[in-house]
Amino acid sequence: MEEPVTAGQARRRTRATTIVVRGVLAAMFVLVTAQNSAWAAEPAPDLSQSIAADQPLATGRTTLDAGHVDIGPRFVGDRWTLLIHDGTQAQPVWRDPDDTLLRVADAALQTVPDDPAYAFLGIEAGQQAYVVPQVQHQDVVWLGWNTQDPRVMQTVDRGATLTLLGVQGPGTLTTYLQSGNFAPPQPLWRSVEPKAQPFWVEVNTHTHANWVFSAPGVYLVAVQVTADLINGEAVSETRTLRFAVGDATSDDDAFAATADIPVPAGEEPPGEDRAVADGQGDGAPTLQIAALAGAAVLLAVGLVVLLLRGRGARRRAEQERAAASSAGQS
Fold first, then answer.
1. Closest CA to 141 of 254, 258, 244, 216
2. 30-57: b or e for each residue (b if 16 or more CB lie within 10 Å)?
3. Which of 54, 97, 241, 246 has an alpha carbon within 20 to 30 A of 146's alpha carbon?
4. Same structural domain, 66 and 182
5. Are residues 241 and 289 in the same domain?
6. How far apart are CA 112 and CA 213, in angstroms?
7. What is the DSSP letter of 97?
8. How many CB atoms neighbour CB 136 within 10 A?
9. SS3 for 278?
10. 109 Cβ neighbours under 8 A, 6+ residues apart
11. Does 208 map to a domain?
12. Residue 295 counted as domain residue
């Protein structure tokens, strides 16, 4: 026979119900924030910045060899294009890739670690490579990307796709992300791959990565940026980034170099087939929504069961008090 439930036990069960509900809601909050952080793939340190709509487009050739630089989509007039955002000076400006040389100095030289996790670089352990690091080095150009131009954020539907179409140079180029906490590296672009290599970037994103060059010399890097606008229009533009790697590489040679990089046949990223830096596609948000919906259903069922049990406990406690009162009066 079930033991009677006292008023004190009923109150304790009600408090337990409240604690369980709060715990479940807290767990769901952690799940949502953790998933959003993974989707954004924002590495440390803090990369917060804002870009004014009136930042000018600078003219004339320039060489950037240190400081903060991003590539990113922007509208010039009504033309969608990919430009270089130069934050190396007090007043940031946008620059045309054709007139901008990204110089990677000998200060960028690092020794490739003897670790299988870096085998994707295709460079033997112990050899030196030129590394534009994910975390800023004051003597090396700090190259990343952003989708923070105000008009881009207002007109683009969700985000854009950055695609490596090819690299021309004396060695290889590999771009990868690596977050903290001993996380493994995430390759984004590898010049040894013959196919187009897209990854997805949400609007209002600012990210830096590691850019690894295996040898000194002039590199020309063909990058395509595509997006769907909220008005239904699809936009696309391909530009060439120009690198002079190593102190001995001539600026004049780098500016004089011409690109002969064929676009991989049939490999242009379709508007519906987007990839993100962690290798997930557009299915990732759907999976997150499904998981959260499932958690919400379980939470609702649990709440109903707990509330019904709590009400039953209160009724039994009230009946016991009434019976005790009647017995005392008799």
1. 244
2. eeeeebeebbbbbbeeeeeeebeeebee
3. 246
4. yes
5. no
6. 11
7. G
8. 15
9. coil
10. 128, 129, 130, 131
11. yes
12. yes
Domain of 209? 62-277
Q: How many Cα neighbours within 13 Å face the side chain of 63?
A: 16
48, part of any domain: no
Do 132 and 188 fall within a single domain?
yes
Q: Are 147 and 241 contained in the same domain?
A: yes
Q: Are residues 188 and 292 in the same domain?
A: no
Tally of domains within the chain: 2
Residue type, 27: A
Amino acid at 269: P
Identify whether residues 193 and 322 lie together within a single domain. Answer: no
- The pLDDT tens digits for 133-190 are 999 999 999 999 999 999 999 999 999 999 999 999 999 999 999 987 778 999 999 9
Which residue type does 55 have? Q
Q: What is the pLDDT of residue 31?
A: 35
Whether the CB-CB separation of 243 and 280 falls below 8 Å is answered with no
- Looking at the fold, whether 311 and 249 belong to one and the same domain comes out as no
Spatial CB neighbours of 98, under 8 Å, sequence gap ≥ 6: 239, 240, 242
